[in-house]
Amino acid sequence: MSMRQPVRVVIRNRPVSGSIGEAVELGADGRTVSVLQASHSSSGAAKRMSFKCDAVLANASQERVFEEAGRPLCETVLQGYNATALCYGQTGAGKSFTMVGDGQDYHQRGLLPRALARIFREVGSRPEYLYTIRLQCLEIYNESMYDLLATMPGAERTDLSITEIGGSVEVSHPFAMPRCAPPTAHIVTTFKRPGANSDISIAESGGSPKRGH
């Protein structure tokens, strides 16, 4: 983000029904979320807790989410600053859908493929500069880390580790090095590969029954 606002918090609301849906209220200002907590006192009045953030996206499309949370990060990166998009939420909240999207529907692609496409377009419009773009996709689950872009024939899911060398933090495994990014047309295909290598897919195919995040 910009130097004036290094951190932004954006809440994406997933539609829910029943008592859970009734317990959450989205403010008309587009920045406030209120949670109603049932009271066990004699008055029976519900306790309201309100939280304000930078933006609340209610029933928002993937494109709307990118415009609000992804595009500003791309602009920051192109200005030479590091940027991070962190998705946080409970299981089933829609983190993977928000970050990666639906691999079967191009229009439902998530933040990552949209951000890469945006960066590629900007790089293509600046022929006076030389850019090198590299990809790295790691999964951290149960304190173990794996390289989800490992595609060598017969390669096994090798547990990686993080080490600090000379003040810099590195992943201590040669196969986990960042890979040169493919052309824009192949970005979505590239991000289908991590899903196939993740713990979710392994469990569905009869492997270790654990879920990835």
Q: What's this entry about, in short?
A:
This protein has helices at residues 18-22, 62-78, 95-99, 111-124, 187-197, 199-204, and strands spanning 10-13, 24-26, 32-37, 47-52, 55-58, 134-135, 138-141, 144-147, 162-165, 168-171, 179-180. With 213 residues, it is of the alpha+beta class.
Protein described:
This protein has six helices and eleven strands. The protein has 213 residues and is an alpha+beta fold. It has a domain at 132-183 and 192-213. The strands form five sheets. The chain has a three-stranded antiparallel sheet. Helix 2 (62-78) crosses helix 4. It is globular. The relative contact order is 0.10. Mean pLDDT is 76; it is low at 200-213.
Q: What does the secondary structure layout of this molecule look like, with pairings?
A:
Layout: E1 10-13, H1 18-22, E2 24-26, E3 32-37, E4 47-52, E5 55-58, H2 62-78, H3 95-99, H4 111-124, E6 134-135, E7 138-141, E8 144-147, E9 162-165, E10 168-171, E11 179-180, H5 187-197, H6 199-204
Parallel strand pairs: 1-5
Antiparallel strand pairs: 2-3, 3-4, 6-11, 7-8, 9-10
Q: What is the share of helical residues?
A: 25-40%
Measured by DSSP, the beta-strand proportion falls in 15-25%
Largest sheet: 3 strands, antiparallel
Could you state the oligomeric state of the chains shown?
Answer: single chain
Strand order of the largest sheet: 2-3-4
The unreliable regions are: 200-213
Q: How many helical elements?
A: 6
How far do the termini sit from each other?
25 Å
CA gyration radius, whole angstroms: 20 Å
Listing every helix as H and every strand as E from the N terminus to the C terminus, the arrangement reads EHEEEEHHHEEEEEEHH
In round numbers, the mean pLDDT is 76
Structural class: alpha+beta
How many β-strand stretches?
11
User: What is the 3D shape?
Assistant: globular
